[in-house]
User: Which sequence fits this backbone?
C-alpha cells in the first residue's frame, strides 16, 4: 500500500490475509529521488526529536540524513533552515545535493561563500527557505543584522568537530540556542578522541543525544564493501640513517643548551613539550633569570631541526633538502637565529654536504617506489580501478606525480591540492578542483595524489585503493582518509611506514586516539538520560500523513 505523505512516501508492508504477520517497515523517500537506508531513517527519527550529534563514517550519507531533517522542518514546521559547512567546496557540494533532493524553487535555496555581496545576500536571506553557507559569512551577517537567527527552525553543523574554541560555529550556536530555537543537527565522521573536546562540542551545540554508527553495526555493515587495511613496513635506507645520525647529534648539542632551564623530560625530546614551555621560559627570563633568553633561541632551533629530521625520515631527501635551505635562506627572525646557531656546528655542515650529494644522485625514494608498485598492481588487475594517495606535503605530491608519470605507462596520476597559494605553489581554484574530480570519476586520471584537502567531506568518488604516504597522528584525519574506500564494494588501505622512525609513533598514536574516541563517544551516548520527546517533533511517523 502506497501512502503519499507530503514530500515523503511511506511504504508499509502489511500482514497477509493468511494471518502470517510480516515485520512492519517503513522507508522514507525525498520526493521519490532517493531511498534512504535503514540506519539513515533511524538516525533521522532521532534527529527530529532533539538536538543530535551524529557520528557516521565518511561516505555513508550524512548529508542524506541532514536533508531528511531539513525537509521535515521545512514541511511540517514551516520553518527555515541554515546548513553550515567549513569550506567553499563543501558548500557547493551540499548546495547541489539539497537542490536535487528538496522540493524548493530556485529562489528558495541559496549558497553563500563570501563571493555574494551584502545587498544580494540581504535579499536572499528574505526569500530563501534554505541557506547553505560557510560559518564566517553567517556570523558576519548575524552581527550586521542582515537576518534574524530566531526566525530559523534548524541549523545543521557539518564537520561538527570544529565547534570549539573561537571557531565561528560557537557564536552562531550560542545565539541560536539563546533564541530558543533549539533544533540542531551536528554531523561528523570523527569528532576526536579527547573527552574534554567532546564535552565542549556537545555543550556548544546544545546536544541532547549523541548517536554513533560504525562499519561494524549490522544495519550499516550490509551497505559496506569492507576494507582490507595493512601497514607496509619499509626499512629506512642506510644512506638516510647515516645523515640522520648527524642531525641527531645537532639536536643533542641544542638540547644540552636547553637542559639548564629544567623544562625537558629526562631521556626524551618532545617538540610539543618544548613549544608549550616557551612562554614560561620568557616569563622567567623577564623576572630574574635573564640568562634564559638565550635558551629560547635554542628551543626554537631544536624544534626546527627536529622537524628537519622528521622530514628526512618520513618524506625523503628532496623534502629535507628544501626545508634545510628554507632555514638557511630565510629572512624571518627566528629562522635566521636558528641558521646562525646550527651553521657553527660541524655536524650540521657535514649534514648539508652529504644531503646535497644524495640529492644530486637522484636516488629512488623507497616510498615512491612502493607506491608505484602498489598502483600498478591495482590498475593492472583492474583497469577501471581508482587509487588515492595521500601525502602530507604539497612538495611530496608534486614529486610523486612526476615520479609516477615518468616510471609508468599504466598510471595517469594527477595532483589534487587546496586553493591557497603557498611558497609560490599556486593552489587549485574550486572550478579546477571540480574538473579534476570529474576527470578522476571518468577515468581520465586513475591516480589522485592528494593533500589533506581531499580528507574532509569532499565528494570524491569511492576508490579501490587508498595509500597513506605516511601515517598521520590524528585519528580524525586517519578515519577520513580511510573513508575514501570500501563504501559500496571491497577496498584496500595501505599505510607506508619506515620502521623505527617517527612514522611508527604517529601510526600507533592514531590507533590509540581512535580507540579512545570510540570509547568516549560510547560513554557519552550511554550516559545520556532518556528525554521527553520534543513538542515540535512527530509523535510517530504516522504524523507525516
Assistant:
Amino acid at each position: 500500500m502506497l501512502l503519499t505523505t507530503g514530500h515523503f512516501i511511506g511504504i508499509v508492508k502489511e500482514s497477509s490475509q493468511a494471518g502470517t504477520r510480516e515485520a512492519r517497515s517503513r522507508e522514507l523517500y525525498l520526493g521519490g529521488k532517493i531511498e534512504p537506508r535503514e540506519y539513515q531513517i533511524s538516525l533521522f527519527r532521532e534527529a527530529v526529536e532533539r538536538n543530535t550529534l551524529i557520528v557516521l563514517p565518511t561516505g555513508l550519507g550524512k548529508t542524506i540524513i541532514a536533508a531528511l531533517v531539513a525537509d521535515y522542518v521545512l514541511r511540517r514546521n514551516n520553518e527555515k533552515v541554515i546548513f553550515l559547512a567549513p569550506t567553499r567546496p563543501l558548500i557547493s557540494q551540499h548546495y547541489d545535493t539539497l537542490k536535487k533532493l528538496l522540493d524548493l524553487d530556485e529562489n528558495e535555496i541559496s549558497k553563500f561563500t563570501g563571493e555574494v555581496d551584502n545587498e544580494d545576500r540581504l535579499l536572499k536571506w528574505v526569500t530563501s527557505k534554505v541557506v547553505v553557507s560557510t560559518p564566517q559569512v553567517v556570523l558576519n551577517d548575524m552581527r550586521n543584522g542582515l537576518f534574524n537567527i530566531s526566525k530559523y527552525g534548524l541549523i545543521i553543523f557539518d564537520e561538527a568537530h570544529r565547534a570549539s574554541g573561537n571557531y565561528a560555529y560557537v557564536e552562531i550556536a550560542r545565539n541560536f540556542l539563546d533564541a530558543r530555537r533549539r533544533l540542531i543537527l551536528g554531523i561528523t565522521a570523527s569528532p576526536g578522541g579527547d573527552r574534554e573536546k567532546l564535552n565542549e562540542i556537545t555543550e556548544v551545540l546544545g546536544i541532547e543525544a549523541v548517536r554513533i554508527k560504525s562499519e561494524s553495526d549490522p544495519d550499516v555493515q550490509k551497505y559496506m564493501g569492507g576494507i582490507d587495511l595493512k601497514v607496509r613496513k619499509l626499512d629506512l635506507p642506510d644512506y638516510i640513517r647515516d645523515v640522520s645520525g648527524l642531525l641527531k647529534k645537532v639536536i643533542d648539542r641544542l638540547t644540552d643548551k636547553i637542559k639548564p632551564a629544567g623544562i625537558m623530560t629526562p631521556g626524551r625530546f618532545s617538540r610539543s613539550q618544548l613549544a608549550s614551555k616557551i612562554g614560561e621560559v620568557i616569563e622567567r627570563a623577564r623576572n630574574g633569570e635573564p640568562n634564559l633568553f638565550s635558551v629560547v633561541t635554542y628551543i626554537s632551533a631544536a624544534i626546527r631541526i627536529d622537524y628537519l629530521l622528521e622530514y628526512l625520515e618520513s618524506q625523503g631527501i628532496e623534502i629535507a633538502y628544501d626545508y634545510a635551505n628554507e632555514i638557511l635562506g630565510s629572512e624571518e627572525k627566528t629562522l635566521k637565529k636558528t641558521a646562525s646557531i646550527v651553521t657553527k656546528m660541524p655536524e650540521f655542515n657535514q649534514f648539508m654536504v652529504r644531503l646535497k650529494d644524495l640529492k644530486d644522485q637522484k636516488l629512488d625514494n623507497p616510498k615512491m617506489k612502493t607506491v608505484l608498485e602498489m598502483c600498478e598492481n591495482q590498475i593492472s588487475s583492474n583497469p577501471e580501478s581508482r587509487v588515492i594517495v595521500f601525502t602530507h606535503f604539497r612538495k611530496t605530491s608534486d614529486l610523486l606525480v612526476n615520479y609516477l608519470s615518468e616510471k609508468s605507462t599504466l598510471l595517469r596520476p594527477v595532483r589534487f591540492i587546496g586553493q591557497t597559494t603557498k611558497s609560490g605553489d599556486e593552489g587549485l581554484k574550486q572550478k579546477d578542483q571540480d574538473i579534476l574530480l570529474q576527470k578522476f570519476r571518468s577515468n581520465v586520471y586513475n591516480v589522485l595524489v592528494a593533500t589533506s584537502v581531499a580528507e574532509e567531506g569532499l565528494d570524491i568518488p569511492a576508490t579501490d585503493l587508498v595509500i597513506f604516504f605516511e601515517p598521520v597522528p590524528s585519528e580524525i584525519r586517519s578515519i577520513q582518509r580511510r573513508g575514501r574506500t570500501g563504501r559500496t564494494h571491497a577496498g584496500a588501505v595501505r599505510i607506508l611506514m619506515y620502521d623505527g622512525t617517527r612514522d611508527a609513533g604517529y601510526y600507533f598514536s592514531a590507533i590509540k586516539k581512535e580507540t579512545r574516541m570510540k570509547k568516549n563517544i560510547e560513554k557519552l551516548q550511554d550516559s545520556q538520560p532518556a528525554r521527553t520527546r520534543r513538542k515540535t517533533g512527530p509523535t510517530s511517523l504516522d504524523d507525516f500523513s
Remarks:
- The two ends are 13 Å apart (CA to CA).
- Residues 1-27, 530-545 have pLDDT under 50 and may be disordered.
- Residues 342 and 348 are 6 Å apart (CA to CA).
- The longest strand covers residues 227-234.
